[in-house]
Amino acid sequence: MTRILIADEFAIVRKGLRAILEEEHDLQVVEEASSAQEALNISKNLEFDVLLIDISSVGFRNLDFIRPLKESRKEIQILVLSTHPEDQYAIRALKAGASGYITKASDAKELVLATRKVAQGGKYISPEVAEQILMAVTGNSSRPSHEKLSDREFTVMKMLASGKRVSEIASDLMLSVKTISTYRRRILDKTKLDSNAALTRYALENQLLD
Q1: CA distance 162 to 204
Q2: Residue 130, SS3 per DSSP
Q3: pLDDT for 156-197, tens place per residue?
Q4: What kind and span of H or E run contains 134?
């Protein structure tokens, strides 16, 4: 029996995911969490095999919840669920330590398949993401500029593009203004853009803003 912890901000979403998973004889939802922090706290005292977590709603930026969980419970597999398209976050999630990534546009069969795959120690990604990875490895990828950014740079880029000032971002991320200014300079350099307004246009064109 595969034991699952579901983490999503919305109770109605958690109930829907539970209903889908528990239709299967080999899958059992043992607990629900409304935030990444709650999931981390639960993981200290509860035995489970798979964490199904929506990164869009649980309150941690930059996939930062994955590292502390994997450090404390290496045996737990993480399946990331998101409203974001796979080409934006899937590879970042896998690099951070997740075992799989599916979007909320996926059907019930894919959710069950992905859950079983990661529970068995495998990785789950769509064929489209697998192709992206292969092209990146073989050097044949014409990757968009934002994929060249580190996770932290990507987070800062989205915040700049949404109209936040450097001082606001520094406060939100608990970093110095100087550090955020350095990130901004790197982001503009890597994306070959010249202003925050250009970052906003780029983010809108690539559907990067929530």
Answers
A1: 9
A2: helix
A3: 999 999 999 999 999 998 989 999 999 999 999 888 898 999
A4: helix 127-138
CA torsion 205-191-210-131 (nearest 10°) is 80
CA-to-CA distance for 53 and 59, rounded, in angstroms? 11
pTM of the model: 0.67
Collapsed DSSP state (helix, strand, coil) of residue 4:
strand
Question: Confidence class of residue 125 from pLDDT cuts 50, 70 and 90?
Answer: confident
Looking at residue 144, what is its pLDDT?
A: 75
Tokens representing 4?
């699952």
Structure tokens at 54: 């929506």
Q: Report the C-alpha gap between 79 and 99 in whole angstroms.
A: 6
The one-letter code for the residue type at 36 is A
Cβ 17 vs Cβ 112: under 8 Å: no
Q: Which residues pair with 51 in a beta bridge?
A: 5, 78
